Amino acid sequence: MSILVVGSVAFDSVETPFGKADEVLGGSGTYFSTSASFFTDVNLVAVVGEDFPTEHTDFLKSRNIDLSGLTTAAGKTFRWSGEYGYDLNEAKTLDTQLNVFAEFCPQLPQSYMDADYVFLANIDPELQLDVLKQVVRPKVVACDTMNFWIDGKREALIKTLKHVDILLINDGEVRQLADEANMVKAAHKVLAMGPKTLVVKRGEYGATMFTEHGVFSAPAYPLEDVYDPTGAGDTFAGGFMGYLASVRDHSDAAMRRAIIFGSVMASFNVEDFSLQRMKATG
Ligand code: AMP
User: Fold this and answer.
1) What would the mean pLDDT of 74-89 be, rounded to a whole number?
2) pLDDT tens digits for 37-56?
3) Does residue 275 contact residue 266 with C-beta atoms inside 8 Å?
4) Can you name the residues that pair with 3 across neighbouring β-strands?
């Protein structure tokens, strides 16, 4: 069963205590699609600028990702730069340049419209809803976001969340969205906004899922070598949704297993910069 994803395709510049990468391939849509492609077929909706090299589109094609929804527009590709201290769980954004995403009005290819599994990766919540409205009857809609949109487009985000089944965000984002410091209270406030399931990503400490059935927690895979956590959340979501779509099951038991697959995919990704580690996995 294929997955439709809308998200950013980007050039990232990242510095961690263990190294630095400039203008490398990144973006929420890129990490998600690549990770999910290990489980199922992926249809990507995004926009890049004229500066986006064929080397990167060739890589996405090599993962069998359908790029008929990837538009090339006049202008520059989305750019993000960030840095991490020794606490790799927290990214500090230095700069975000939306560039071609600022004017992007996606028109889904006909072949994408009957998607059963939809992932609204981290991008403008208005764009997320725009894409979702074009899908005829999705079975499972999952979503990610970040502080940039919780701060900057809160109302639009709350509107999008009403149509979401599963929200996957990190612990800081849960607290910010709910405006509540206690995680359990915050999770219940977020569940009241629409999603039936909330998966809280907690970096090296794993992930915790809140549903009407209760709470499920799993640790992250313990790693000795972590170089760059950028994209870990999107890679986790790609493993999580990729698994659900591949077994066509989103019961509580399947989602618990999906968390383990998500953690495994994320554990590979953080071992190198950009998508190098997933590229090497083959
Ligand atoms: P993660 O580390 O999983 O939270 O995701 C990092 C990725 O998100 C990077 O590759 C960035 O290009 C992308 N990103 C950062 N800020 C934004 C934003 N405001 N909207 C969309 N994508 C973003």
Assistant:
1) 94
2) 999 999 999 999 999 999 99
3) no
4) 42, 117
pLDDT in tens, 109-127: 999 999 999 999 999 999 9
DSSP at 220: P
Closest-CA residue, ligand 1 atom 16, reads 80
The helix-helix angle for 28-36 and 232-247 (nearest 10°) equals 40
Does the beta carbon of 96 lie inside 6 Å of ligand 1? yes
d(CA 142, CA 165) in angstroms, rounded, equals 6
Structure token digits, residue 198:
């909330």
Question: 3-class SS at 115?
Answer: coil
Tell me the pTM: 0.97
Of all protein residues, whose CA lies closest to atom 6 belonging to ligand 1?
231
Q: Which domain holds residue 140?
A: 3-86+93-281
What is the H or E stretch that residue 140 is in?
Answer: strand 140-143
Q: Which residues contact 152 (CB under 8 A, 6 or more apart)?
A: none
Ligand 1 atom at shortest distance from the alpha carbon of 149: 19
Is the confidence at residue 7, as pLDDT, over 90? yes
Collapsed DSSP state (helix, strand, coil) of residue 30:
helix
Q: How many domains does the chain have?
A: 1
Name the token pair of 207. 């992930």
CATH of the domain at 65: 3.40.1190.20
> Per-residue confidence at 281, pLDDT binned at 50, 70, 90?
confident
